[in-house]
Design brief:
This protein is α/β, with parallel strands linked by helices. Helix content is 32%, strand content 24%. The strands form 4 sheets. The protein has an 11-stranded mixed sheet, sandwiched between helices. A hairpin with a 6-residue loop joins β8 and β9. The longest helix is centred in the N-terminal third of the chain and has 22 residues. The protein is globular, with a radius of gyration of 22 Å. Bound molecules: 5'-O-[hydroxy(phenylacetyl)phosphoryl]adenosine (DLL).
């Protein structure tokens, strides 16, 4: 039986959802026009006035917003409510350039937490559950978002934040946590530690809500098997609120976009043309219920596909595929596009783990790519010969997946640094040379 936080909304008819979107879009555009000089100027430059937008069908007329706009308008340029109405900021972990800062009124936080509550209930969460939140707290949205959602459902919430794995495991066992919220890479690390400490029989987890970074279906199966749970995906970004822009239901076949709060489009990343639903493209979101920091046609750089079909859970919101990788994450090696997720898929299919790292370098004018992956306990007792054969086998599989040759090195257990938040999968030394 499907479990909902706001059943009438989550299962509303497509006509009803469209009606909400039309009404809220118009309200948002008017609000932004009145309160945000930066976006108003963008509209004027594009020759669009408020009156030109009569419904969602006119969305394409509006200018895009990008992360560069957010950086340019930093810190207050895209705030659309008086400072006195704003109660919180969150920020991206951006390592280069200016950070992106998002603002929230109390109502914005409230609606965001509702989205996270929907995600928790979609995985079967009820007030009987004990939710262990080990996303980072603070500026990162993962901890605060899921924490708020868990409170709304009425779950006992463990605000662990990231790191301190020993303590995570102690609370997980002692307090009998049933739902785990963290990045998939940290979930894999926790699973590994649980096995090493022989705690598998003492944990009561039934579900995990994992997101904030790309992860493959192979990694999902690996985590599910190791922890004996169902692993669900959750997507979001700071600029749009945080986690809960979309979330997976029991069907585990893509994430329902909270369409009463966000309108989603897919566009051709090169031309900006809107693509029909079902085509692979860059995901673009328009927030339609936010006050402090509404974003119109925000380009995420995440590549995905939208599917509007009947879901067995009863939800009517459109589903987005797992983002197939950010256009930012894509490596171009010897002219070939390489996504880390493709490499992960090969490694896991070949019986290795998600403890891997991709090193890209350039010698002279030639790019080189090396994949380091840790040995599994089975391989550890194998002969050097056998390990070399395994390396060659993986290299062949990568060649057929990517079309280029990658050096594969099976390295000692525990030699690749574990991640407590978003994993760093790629070290691109070419960038160091400028
Ligand atoms: O990662 C918000 C979040 C927290 C989502 C916890 C889910 C769970 P940012 O740090 O601003 O926000 O990063 C946003 O992370 O544009 C995607 O590229 C990536 N991302 C987020 N969720 C997923 C996911 C949070 N489920 C950026 N799968 C986004 C793949 C994801 N990538």
């Amino acid at each position: 039986m499907a479990n909902y936080y706001q059943k009438e909304i989550e299962t509303a008819s497509p006509e009803q959802i469209r009606a909400w979107q039309n009404e809220r879009l118009l309200k948002t555009i008017q609000h932004v026009w009145d309160n945000n000089a930066y976006y108003r100027q963008k509209m004027i430059d594009r020759g669009v006035l408020v009156g030109d937008i009569k419904s969602v069908d006119d969305l394409w007329k509006l200018p895009f917003l990008t992360k560069d706009d957010l950086r340019e308008a930093y810190p207050y340029g895209l705030m659309s409510a008086p400072l006195s109405d704003c109660v919180r900021i969150q920020s991206t972990s951006g390592t280069t350039g200016k950070r992106v800062v998002a603002f929230y009124t109390q109502e914005d936080i409230d609606l965001w937490e509702d989205c996270c509550a929907r995600a928790i209930m979609a995985v079967g969460g009820t007030k009987e559950d004990v939710v262990q939140v080990c996303y980072g707290y603070g500026l990162f949205t993962g901890g605060p978002g899921l924490n708020g959602g868990s409170h709304k459902v009425g779950c006992l919430t463990l605000p662990m934040s990231s790191g301190n794995t020993e303590r995570q495991l102690q609370f997980m066992v002692d307090l009998e946590a049933t739902i785990l919220c963290c990045t998939p890479s940290y979930a894999a690390y926790l699973a590994e530690s649980i096995h090493e400490k022989g705690l598998r029989d003492q944990i009561k987890l039934k579900a995990g809500i994992f997101g904030a970074e790309a992860w493959t279906e192979e990694m999902r199966r690996d985590i599910e098997e190791k922890l004996g749970i169902k692993a669900y995906d959750i997507y979001g970004l700071t600029e749009l609120s945080g986690p809960g822009v979309s979330f997976e239901c029991e069907e585990q076949t893509g994430m329902h976009v909270n369409e009463d709060h966000f309108i989603v489009e897919t566009i051709d990343p090169d031309t900006g043309a809107v693509l029909p639903e079902g085509s692979r493209g860059e995901l673009v979101f328009t927030s339609i219920t936010k006050t402090a920091f509404p974003l119109i046609r925000y380009r995420t750089k995440d590549i995905g596909v939208l599917k509007r079909e009947k879901c067995s859970c009863g939800r009517t919101f459109v589903k987005m595929s797992k983002p197939m990788g950010r256009s930012d994450d894509m490596l171009i090696v010897r002219g070939v596009n390489v996504f880390p997720s493709q490499i992960e898929q090969v490694l896991l299919t070949k019986g290795l783990t998600s403890n891997y790292q991709i090193l890209v370098d350039r010698v002279g004018t030639t790019d080189s790519i090396e994949v380091k992956v840790e040995m599994t306990p089975e391989l550890f007792s194998d002969t050097i010969n056998h390990i070399s054969r395994k390396e060659a086998e993986i290299s062949d599989a990568l060649k057929s997946m990517l079309g280029i040759t990658a050096k594969v090195s099976i390295v000692e257990p525990k030699s690749i640094i574990r991640s407590e938040g978003k994993a760093v999968r790629v070290i691109d030394k070419r960038k160091l040379y400028g």
